[in-house]
Amino acid sequence: MFDVPGPRFRRRVFWVSVVSGLVLVGLVALGLRQFAAGGQLEPVRWRPYLTWPVWRYLLGGLWSTVVAACATGVLAMAGGLLLALRPNRFTRGYAEVMRTVPVLLLVYVMLFVLPSFGMNLPLFWKLVVPLALSHAASYAVIFRAGVSAVDPGQREAGLSLGMPDGVVTRFVVLPQAVRHMTPLLVTQAVSLLKDTSLGYVVSYTELLFNGRVLANYNGLLIQTFIVVAFVYLVVNLALSRLAHRLEAARARTAR
What we know:
Layout: H1 7-37, H2 43-46, H3 52-85, H4 89-100, H5 103-113, H6 123-148, H7 152-160, H8 165-195, H9 207-218, H10 221-254
Helix pairs in contact: 3-6, 3-9, 4-6, 5-6, 6-8, 7-8, 8-10, 9-10
């Protein structure tokens, strides 16, 4: 699909990476200097985040985030699988439209439009349903790619044995496609987890919402959101690391 990078291109990439890293370090140093000048790095401002009650409150929000992400993932994967296995104009059109519509717009529809028609869901589902509708389109693309990566001969072999097409798909094609899809599914989970931060719009008590409440309570806005960002960073890096490990394991198995 592409040529192996030559020495000149590798040197160019190296120097671009070095310059980008220096610029990033400079921006971080400048930010720390500004924080120090404003007294934001004083130990007294960070001391509350060394106490268990504060972390218990934030971890409670993280747990709500994980629950919402898991519920969204289950619904989105089920919807994505249905869209991928039933290719027609409607499913293709749905996938294309939902991949272009902002998730926040769907949340606003769930929050303001549907209640006017008598459909007022609990806060949890006002977040989960629009996220699932949006991410189902992305999962559909992943499932299609996974199924397409399976050797067509596998399906033909199953059909030649007299197995119905649905049985071949369920017991022959999908199990093999899962090996190709797993790293992408984990990567998509990172995006899904970040989108749960829209829960503050519907007042769902996820991590970002709890961070906003905590910042309003203790007046430590910058410190609180840096800690919240750090929690998101740790969780998403762990998921990304898992995706890389799964991809490496799949590559070793394919050899």
